Amino acid sequence: MINSTLAAKALYNVASLGGKGDGKTDSTQAFLSAWAKACASVEPAVIYIPRGRFLLHNVVFAGPCKNNAITFLIAGTLVAPSDYRVIGNADNWISFEDVEGVTISGGILDGQGTDLWACKAAGKSCPNGATTLSFSNSNDIKVSGVISLNSQMFHIVINGCHNVKMQSVKVSASGQSPNTDGIHVQMSSSVTILNSKIATGDDCISIGPGTSDLWIENVKCGPGHGISIGSLGKDPEEAGVQNVTVKSDQIVGRPSTGFAKDILFQHAVMLNVQNPIVIDQNYCPDNKGCPGQVSGVKISDVTYQDIHGTSATEVAVKFDCSSKNPCSNIKMEDVKLTYKNQAAEASCSHAAGTSAGTVQPTSCL
Q: Which UniProt keywords apply (predicted)?
């Protein structure tokens, strides 16, 4: 299949353009050269990365291009510089901007972020770190079979994009890795994430402002947190989050502070998850800039259906909503969560809704 793919399209091999898979030689220019040729091609193009470890500094693959069918076929590994300061002050390590019809198939992206995490843990002055793979203002994107290891910051970011499909993606980083969200989606629509495994020190999938029509199915999360809808309400006027479906996943909710509505969490298995079901509008990171403030975000029409498993905290269901904008139309259907083989607890504040079927702990809505 690979041979037929390569034969059918314009092929640009980074090794033929000066790239060396020795893990030491900077191959950035070879990748940029391959991109320039592929982007200028009027026919579909393939950029091929053979086996080996290709050292890559921060790079931007920018469009628009003359064709809308460019495939990165990665047999080897792209590796970030071992000195985190080289790319640590860049927003992104590998970035795609203003492109259409880009596919990334296979390969390993090694962000080599462990030394930066250690720097942050020691309280030293460190760069923020770079996101491993970023797509911005782009359409018709496919990512399949990619493995992201040890990103300095977020692993994959989808920002301002439409029609994105990610499947069979694997993300791996230490449980002690800070701010290493697996996949972050914001200001984007028609995004699908399927059949993936994400283990990192922060959110498995984080959903930011302006996200709509997001489908997440059969994603295994852990360790770290689960799927979060958060970082809302930072700006007085911002887009909300709507039409999100999460099916057959291991999930933990996170703070949400715009609007968030039409959210469905369905067929989820929790395994020793902290606060498996939570809406926390009084969340205040590091108690800075927000203690005592009332959230202005309206949360409504959130359904939790067929959620089973175990909680690592006694309070398994927590709805701590805003007194100014109470949560409304929260639905609990067929939920069973336990804590240390005992009945867990539920806590509600300024939340209204309904329950149906077996709901354990007993609904406080």
A: Cell wall, Cell wall biogenesis/degradation, Glycosidase, Hydrolase, Secreted
